[in-house]
Amino acid sequence: MTQTEPDFWVLEYVTITKDPRTDLVVAIGGTEQAADILQQAGGFLTAPGPRGDYHRLPHGLPIEQQRRKATAASYALLAAGHSVHLDPALNTLATPDGEREAALHYLARLAERASGAETSSEVAEVLTEIAAPVNGLLPLTREVVVRAWIAADGLQGAAPGEKPEPIAQLGDTANSLSRAAHLIGLARNHAARAAHRPDPTLTAPSPALPRAVPAARRR
Question: What is the DSSP code string of 167-195?
């Protein structure tokens, strides 16, 4: 039996990089759909080139703005199914500031989910992200504060019992974060239970009434 290779419907490759001669961020390749995404998600402009039209960002953009627009366009293209190569120097999620950018994006998305929640279950999911015992935002933040407190305490070199007030208050802050995580966890549990509570507007069916005995059969 002869085996044939499958057909793959792969959209044309898009390369987003920075031209070393002009310092312009350019996008080369792609389909008309890719061109629309570059324009809408990244603010790219169409420009004529020796081998056909290409896309570029406007002149004079600050470097950070170039990176944000190139990254946004790249991920929008990927989400639409295009194959993309993004210059690592333009990728805000692959450079030293990438972790901070990713964290800010995550928090912004979490706030959007909270604002758009339409069910108790969706609210519970958001609260779980905040107060989950191991990987919740508040427990992880508390861990950072505790470690900073220990480090600051060791670097002060003060005698026992003579810790500066702001440093001593870090311990109280860590405890406050623990209490906040506990209270949010309780609210999360309440929302999760509400999501599985029967709808009070639904009433149980009425019991069937006994059937009347025909008059001919009465004695």
Answer: HHHHHHHHHHHHHHHHHHHHHHHHHHHHH
Asked if 56 and 27 count as a contact pair (C-beta separation under 8 A), the reply is yes
User: Quick one: which of 9, 25, 12, 21 has its CA closest to 72?
Assistant: 25
* Whole-number Cα distances in Å, 146 to 19, 59, 87: 46, 47, 38
At 1-33, the pLDDT tens digits run: 566 665 555 557 899 999 988 889 999 988 889
**C-beta separation of 97 from 71 below 8 A:** no
CA end-to-end distance (rounded Å), the chain: 85
Q: Which amino acid is at 187?
A: A
pLDDT, one tens digit per residue, over 31-61 is: 889 999 999 999 999 988 877 788 999 998 9
Which three-class secondary structure state does DSSP give residue 16?
Answer: strand
User: Which residues, other chains included, contact 194 with Cβ-Cβ below 8 Å and sequence gap of 6+?
Assistant: 120
Phi, psi values for residue 170, rounded to 5°: -60, -35
Q: What is the DSSP string of 85-151?
A: EE-GGG-TTTSTTHHHHHHHHHHHHHHHHHHT--SHHHHHHHHHHHH-TTT-HHHHHHHHHHHHHHH
Contact 29, 14 (CB under 8 A): yes
